[in-house]
Amino acid sequence: MIVTIDGPAGSGKSTAAKGLARRLGYDFLDTGAMYRAIALACLRGDIPPADEARLVALLETLTLEMPPGRVVLDGEDVAGLIRTAEVTRLVTPVADSPAVRRRLTAMQRRIAAGRDFVTEGRDQGTLVFPDAGCKFFLVADEQERARRRVRQMATQGETADLDAVLEAIRYRDARDAARDLAPMVPADDAVRLDTTGLTVDEVVDRMEATVRGRLPAA
Fold first, then answer.
1. Which pLDDT tens digit goes with each residue over 122-143?
2. In order of start, what are the domains of the chain with their CATH numbers?
3. 135 near 210, Cβ under 8 Å?
């Protein structure tokens, strides 16, 4: 069983996906962390994401592994290094690269093959796993999403202006939804869930009930 959770930044995808995976006893795949790892590799190699030739060369040489709770880039666990503001600024242009999309889509399918997985991102139910057994698309009020992002940054020792974060979210939403390659849109068969005002447990409760309702009888 593959369960996909898509939606914009701040909608609660990652937290809910981790909680749902624990409830179901499934593995969890953080696809956003994979794109962040590529962005980190670009920073280290001083490679502009728009330079497709150099980006392709980088992808051919690096190794990326996603063991539970870790992000291993070229043998180094970089889970603690990929959430910085510098990496965050590069994620969107990196994700816009056709070469990166192709490479990570193939990698995500390979990781999930033959396993029970909860996977989250922006194109999991539409592009990566179109035949997933259960799909969700999470949304939330943009003001709430901006507040969540500011709180998250504070836990990482970073300060941010709420209005600036809100504008960044609006820009990224528009860009993600309008891009030609893997736009951020709900799959036709996705369950849409508004997380505004809901606790994490309430979100997970609703998703768990939906997933279990679709599992074959024992």
1. 899 999 999 999 999 999 998 8
2. 1-25+116-204 (3.40.50.300), 27-115 (3.40.50.300)
3. no
